[in-house]
Amino acid sequence: MTSLGKDLLALERLSAEQISLVLDTAGPFKEISERAIKKVPTLRGATIVNLFFEPSTRTRISFEFAEKRMSADTVNVATAGSSVTKGETLVDTARNLEAMRIDMVVIRHTSSGAAQFLAERIESNVINAGDGTHEHPTQGLLDILTLRDRWGTLTGKRVCICGDVLHSRVARSNIWGLTKLGAEVAVCGPRSLLPSAIADLGVTVFDRIEAAIEWADALNVLRLQLERMLGGFIPSLREYNRVFGVTRERLERAPRDIIIMHPGPMNRGVEIDSDVADGPHSVILDQVTNGVAIRMAVLYLLAGNPPGLADAAKGAV
Ligand code: CP
Fold first, then answer.
1. Mind listing the pLDDT tens digit for each residue in 278-312?
2. What is the reported pLDDT for 44?
3. What pTM, to 2 d.p., does this model score?
4. Beta carbon of 304 within 6 Å of any ligand 1 atom
5. Cα separation of the two ends of the chain
6. Is 57 near ligand 1, meaning CB less than 6 Å away?
7. Which residue CA neighbors atom 3 of ligand 1 most closely?
8. How confident is the model at residue 226 (pLDDT cuts 50, 70, 90)?
């Protein structure tokens, strides 16, 4: 029987069956968030720590909603206000939390590999909520669910990931997940923002946004990660928007309707214009809604399918 195992660290490690399992499991959980009383007892008694060592709005709040809607007890730990500021190591922090008998850790960290490092050293389930420039698996899963909701299948569909691929963990999770489910994937951006060996991942590379728009069924537009750039990657934000920005004028020349995605937070007027982000082809807020269901599904599966998904879907509290 397909399962996720102990941790969710990267979509690179999951099979197509495991990815589909999460997507299929998210279905019943979506309905729970539409109820007046958004709560089921599925994870009652479980204690989950959200360990965020880097800023986050969507991911942190989405995990917290998912945990609370499944009746888990949750604790949020951020760098500021924790003993990390006094020099405590990641492992010491986690081991101290484990000594208080926790069950799962959701971790966001600036360092690539931090989630795996932790998973190898503690018994609790570890979920990677974004590690450096490596992966952001739940973002990849929610992006794929949003596309599958629209298309029914990913097979043969063309998705272009646009912009700052070099610094993007979202890009890596999307590339692994989409290709495993049979989509064709491309990237588009200035060469300074594309990893030199990106084609080795089996993706097409576009140097011009116009060519990407002509090719794609969906664009996943990435944020320019200005905080990770030490300078010199692009001449200016204005120049970037002029050459690579996803604008209404460019989309109007597309040969077909293109789904527009963005993982957030957006730099409006830089990688994406407001009339595209808020326009008829945008599914950006659907991505956010799907994020809660995906995270509920991941928590449920890692908890070892606690009894009562059927009950949960029926609304037992
Ligand atoms: N998409 C995403 O990871 O957003 P946050 O950084 O706000 O969590």
1. 999 999 999 999 999 999 999 999 998 665 544 55
2. 97
3. 0.94
4. no
5. 28
6. yes
7. 59
8. confident
Minimum-distance ligand 1 atom for the alpha carbon of 62 = 8
Q: Which atom of ligand 1 is nearest to the CA of 60?
A: 8
pLDDT in tens, 46-81: 999 999 999 999 999 999 999 999 999 999 999 888
Does the pLDDT of residue 13 top 60, yes or no? Answer: yes
Q: Share the mean pLDDT of the chain.
A: 93
- Please indicate whether residue 56, judged by its CB atom, sits closer than 6 Å to ligand 1: yes
How many beta carbons lie within 10 A of that of residue 13, not counting itself?
Answer: 15
**161 near 171, Cβ under 8 Å?**
yes
CA dist., res. 258 & res. 153, Å (int):
16
194 Cα: distance to centroid of ligand 1 (angstroms): 21
| Mean pLDDT computed over 22-31 | 96
Q: How far apart are the CA of 53 and the centre of ligand 1, in A? A: 13
User: Which of 50, 52, 54, 58 gets mutated to test ligand 1 (max ligand atoms within 8 A of its CB)?
Assistant: 58
Query: Residue 57: which residues within 8 A CB-CB, separation 6 or more?
Result: 264, 265
Residue among 181, 205, 183, 209 nearest 195 (CA): 205
Q: Helices in 70-136 by DSSP H: which ranges?
A: 90-99, 114-119
pLDDT score at 149: 98
What pLDDT, in 10s, does the model give residues 131-175? Answer: 999 999 999 999 999 999 999 999 999 999 999 999 999 999 999
Which atom, in ligand 1's list, is nearest to the CA of 136?
3
Long-range CB contacts for residues 282-287, cutoff 8 Å, separation at least 24: 283/146, 283/150, 283/259, 284/260, 286/146, 286/149, 287/142, 287/143, 287/146, 287/261, 287/262, 287/263
Atom of ligand 1 minimally distant from the CA of 57: 7
Percent of the chain predicted with pLDDT > 70? 95
* Structural domains of the chain, with CATH: 11-136+291-316 (3.40.50.1370), 137-287 (3.40.50.1370)
